[in-house]
Amino acid sequence: MSDTKPVVTRFAPSPTGSLHIGGARTALFNWLFARGRGGKFLLRIEDTDRSRSTPENTAEILAGLTWLGIDWDGEPISQFERAPRHAEVARELLASGKAYKCFSTTEEIEAFREQARAEGKSTLFRSPWRDVPESEHPDLPFVIRIKAPQDGAQTITDQVQGEVTIGNDQMDDMVMLRSDGTPVYMLAVVVDDHDMGVTHVIRGDDHLTNAFRQKMIYDAMGWDFPVMAHIPLIFGPDGKKLSKRHGATAAAEYQAMGYPAAGMRNYLTRLGWSHGDAEFFTDAEARAWFDLEGIGKSPARFDTKKLEHLCGMHIARSDDADLVAQIKGYLAKIGAAPLTDAQADGLLRAMYTLKERAKTFPELLEKAHFVLTQRPIVPDEKAAAALDTVSRGILNELTQLLPDVSWERDTLETLVAEVAEKHGTKLGKIAAPLRTALAGRSVSPSVFDMMLILGRTESTARLAEASS
Questions:
Q1: Which CATH code is given to the segment(s) 246-362?
Q2: Which residues form the Aminoacyl-tRNA synthetase class I anticodon-binding domain (predicted)?
């Protein structure tokens, strides 16, 4: 294949369920590789399993990709709708003598395999119809099989796995078209990839053996064989294939848990691929750096703590207004009440003090409780314990002084420190009842940040209510 062709990659999920984390990473790798080279990233829905493929699953997969920020070129292609084209290729190979009609029944094939197992021989079925001339064909249902090479070996140079070779004696004459005229998956994939102009196939290494069977069709049709890159699967912390026993496995679940998409992209890109020692990187850096050489051969292990760490870094570095928009999307995803205009404005003003140590949107929203709630402030049990007769008296005294001070951090800190000293205590001792009055929580941003964000009128009103 010519290296001068524009790069075209694809992601081809089956809509039999939601977008799995492994699928999301595969899509991301294909997207990064294409986008970093000015190429195209295409989407194909492999919906040939009609009993399990649903429009709802397709919509959820598209929504998961959209949330992750993975865009595609053109409209998604339905594999099912292209069945006539797949069958056309099988008949073309039949007409050229590179495929043949096989009339062996399912029962005959199974009987052969049972006997082979009993005799300790290979169960690879060799059809007796491979070289039977058309004139001797019965008027019976048949499948169309491709003629596999029978001698020698074939090698695929995989960009991740290296050179992989198998003997042609391990290849059977694969069925391409069933007796009812429907194409098999192996044929459909090859025809679709060729017709879509796919130059690079980046997919899970569980498809590596399929590549040899698919190569037979490429060779028989005289088509360019795409560059192959079979990436290792994702394992859980216990070294076993990632599954629900390890926790969430769908992209939608992580969205609903409030992980930012940028952090998720960063983590999934880093999961099985590396660029030096870089852990945190931007989308622009990922597109510029991503290559197939950086993909490791060993399965990567999903580590929630690393995911949270990266997500926290992305939240901290995000634009404040963009974070508010992301939080609105998160609230819509979980079916929560949308932010009012006043809440969104308060959240934006408070963001500088909220985003530094939050790893997820729920953590950030919990810190933002003070600016999202309204009077009367109802403290939780732990916060309420900070309010006693003495602390209420101190809050009452502060309330009387607040209308006349300059509303600046240094001035407020000095005022609170002076009141604390007057009562023979430290500023830290006053911080707890102040926090309760302002936020109703025992954990919150700095009391002085909260006062600046809430403003003089609201802060004074909250202290007055708590001290009464």
A1: 3.40.50.620
A2: 331-466
Q: Would you tell me how many other CB atoms lie within 10 Å of the CB of residue 319? A: 10
Give catalytic status of residue 244 as yes or no.
yes
DSSP single-letter state for residue 246:
G
Q: Using DSSP bridges, classify how beta strands 153-158 and 300-301 pair: parallel, antiparallel or unpaired.
A: unpaired
Question: Is 42:31 a contact under the CB 8 Å cutoff?
Answer: no
Binding-site residue ranges = 244
Please identify which of the residues 40, 240, 241, 244 carries the catalytic annotation. 244
* Binding-site residue set for ATP: 244
Question: 82-231 in CATH: which number?
Answer: 3.40.50.620
| Contact (Cβ atoms closer than 8 angstroms) between residue 262 and residue 314 | yes
Q: Bridge partners of 177?
A: 144, 183
pLDDT digits (tens, 9 = 90+) for 385-442: 999 999 999 999 999 999 999 999 999 999 999 999 999 888 878 999 999 999 999 8
Q: Which two tokens stand for residue 116?
A: 């082979």
Nearest to 23 by CA among 40, 46, 52, 39: 46
Q: Where exactly are the structural domains of the chain?
A: 82-231, 246-362, 381-467
pLDDT in tens, 5-23: 899 999 999 998 889 999 9
Q: How confident is the prediction for the chain on average, in pLDDT?
A: 94
Q: What are phi and psi of 143, to 5 degrees?
A: -105, 160
CATH of domain 381-467: 1.10.10.350
In order of 262, 286, 293, the CA distances from 282 in angstroms are: 8, 6, 20
Same fold, 246-362 and 381-467: no
Task: Decide if 154 contacts 213 (C-beta within 8 A).
Answer: no
Residue where the block lists tokens 């595609």 = 72
Task: Identify the burial level of 74 via C-beta atoms within 10 angstroms of its C-beta, where 0-12 means exposed, 13-18 middle and 19 or more buried.
Answer: exposed
Each residue of 163-173: pLDDT tens digit? Answer: 999 999 889 99
pLDDT band for position 2 (cuts 50, 70, 90): very low
Please say whether the beta carbons of 325 and 265 come within 8 A. Answer: no
**Res 32: pLDDT:** 98
